[in-house]
Amino acid sequence: MRKLIPSGSLRRMLLPPTYGRHVTDSNEFTVLSVEIWATGLVVNIQMASEGGPQPRIILQDHFGTEYSLRDSAVLGSRNLQVFTPSVPPGTRSLTVRSADDPEARPVVTFAVPLMAVPEEPATARGGYPPEAELRRPA
Known about the structure:
By secondary structure, this protein is mainly β. It has strands at 10-14, 20-23, 28-37, 41-47, 57-61, 68-75, 78-84, 93-98, 106-111.
């Protein structure tokens, strides 16, 4: 059986603050959500019709992280696209752009809520107390 979903725990589900619809001559789709997993991201897309072309998207954050498409699956008119890596600690926003659009206009931008950095086992830190939780600057 194919393993599409990234390993580790689901850390957050991001829902678009606006209707994330993209329409061009070559493609039409709506971004429904982004799942933030410990090891990657899953973008849930509604395509215009079953059997239509899969959207080619680009993910960007304000750090300039390079996100790579690792897998994709079509389920009827739904498309799940898996990217790695996961968002780095302190990420504030995540933008989905269409690679089919010559201007690469944003389809939708998500606000990424503050997430605690997962703790390393005490043995990996030399047995010292856990580090303080990472906070965004004010």
